Amino acid sequence: MVNSERLWSRIQELALIGKTVDDGVNRFSYTLEEHAANEKVKQFMEEAGLEVSYDAVGNLIGSKAGEEDLPTILIGSHVDTVPNGGKFDGALGVLTGIEVMQSLQEQGINLRHPVKVIAFKDEEGTRFGFGLLGSRAVAGHLTHEDLERKDQQGISIREAMLERGFNPDKLHTAEMDHVKLYLELHIEQGKILESQGVSVGNVTGIAGPLWLKVKVVGEAEHAGATPMGQRKDPLVAASLMIAEIEKLASSYPDAVATVGSLSLTPGGVNVIPGTVEFTIDLRDVQEDIRDRLESQIREFADQIGRDRNIEVVIEELQRVSPVLCSDDIQAVIQESISELEVPVVSLPSGAGHDAMQFNGLFPVGMIFVRSKDGISHNPKEFTSREDAKAGADVMLKTLLKLDQE
């Protein structure tokens, strides 16, 4: 078992770096606050007996050699945050990996496989609007073109890397091979575990986001002088589409659909809108289901356009494939959960994680711990000390079992 007091103390200590007046956390990639957090995590890694280094893009890596010449087991998450974020998102996963390795060291348990605990650079994408930067580099997916992306001050990722002492010209050296599998522990950021009354759960997969922008073009006219039967109102058409999107998504067990942005022009109180634009975020762990939902939404939108003599244009903004967690790793996680004598709950992740970048490269597995009220990306984000310990104990048990395979 792990040392829950040490784990909890480190969570609180790390949360002081970048702390906001609202008791939230601001730690954005390649900033002084994020660097200070990494240096604190480096200290924890060294206390756990890990050999610590930074790679070319700034991933912080704590390594432990194995007793045999076998592929490496990766454990990771991140310490960067969204604006005014919480203290558990990402950080709990990194600190749990460190605690597991320190507990094994103190118990005199040596693993057959080498292990690397990684604090990935910039998972959230807050500063540059481009997330999963560190895990992209490890997977070999980060390009030199990506490094030209700029923040709101016009500073590129490349320039930010150089400012912190990293080497963008050696980007390729961050890529890892000879990897057995990847494990990640994360807060759920939802309410499923809480509704089931359990502290820890097995993740079946990570839903891939598909983002669409819908433009509905009607005719702007005088609100008082245009009879209802003669209007080409794009807002009414968009409203029908949005209602149908909710209905269609609700017909699938794990699919979600969100209209998160809506704008209309010209925007006068006495003017029928001429153009409406809104976004759609579609997610499901099964790509065929997500794509089927997309087709149904497109068909409905086209039909509304024809029925109302209104132009409808749908643009794809982003399409990311979902990731299914390894059945073999899931089985081990489920077995480890059952050993805590609590019900085994398996659930999908609607949010994205670093694990997504390793799809098709090597097996991945994820462990969720309960989030109070499902709140995340918020200073009120909270996971109890008991739940954090339960998650860490499952991680330790899972690692020991996978190391013997």
Any key phrases for this structure?
hydrolase activity, Alpha-Beta Plaits, about 20% strand, 5-stranded antiparallel β-sheet, Aminopeptidase, 10 helices, 9-stranded mixed β-sheet, globular, 2 domains, alpha/beta
Q: Any overview of this molecule?
A:
It is a single chain. The chain has 405 residues and is α/β, with parallel strands linked by helices. The protein folds into 2 domains: 4-206 and 323-404, Zn peptidases (Aminopeptidase, 3-Layer(aba) Sandwich), CATH 3.40.630.10; 208-319, Alpha-Beta Plaits. The protein is 33% helix and 21% strand. The chain has helices spanning 4-15, 32-47, 91-106, 133-139, 157-163, 192-196, 234-249, 287-308, 327-338, 385-404; strands at 51-54, 60-64, 72-78, 115-120, 179-187, 200-206, 208-217, 256-258, 262-265, 275-284, 311-319, 323-324, 346-349, 364-369. Strands 1, 2, 3, 4, 5, 6, 12, 13 and 14 form a 9-stranded mixed beta sheet that branches. Strands 7, 8, 9, 10 and 11 form a 5-stranded antiparallel beta sheet that branches. Strand 3, helix 3 (91-106) and strand 4 form a beta-alpha-beta unit. Helix 1 packs antiparallel against helix 3, helix 7 (234-249) runs antiparallel to helix 8 and helix 9 (327-338) packs across helix 10. The relative contact order is 0.17. Residues 206-306 form the Peptidase M20 dimerisation domain.
Structure in a nutshell:
By secondary structure, the protein is an alpha/beta fold.
Percent strand equals 15-25%
Instruction: Please give the number of β-strands.
Output: 14
Specify the number of helices. 10
What structural class do the secondary elements suggest? alpha/beta
The CATH homology group name of the largest domain = Zn peptidases
Helix content: 25-40%
CA radius of gyration is 23 Å
Integer count of domains? 2
Top-tier CATH class of the largest domain: Alpha Beta
> Distance N terminus to C terminus?
21 Å
Please, what is the average pLDDT?
96
Form type: globular
Pfam families: M20_dimer (PF07687), Peptidase_M20 (PF01546)
Keywords: Hydrolase
Family: Belongs to the peptidase M20 family.
Domain Peptidase M20 dimerisation: 206-306
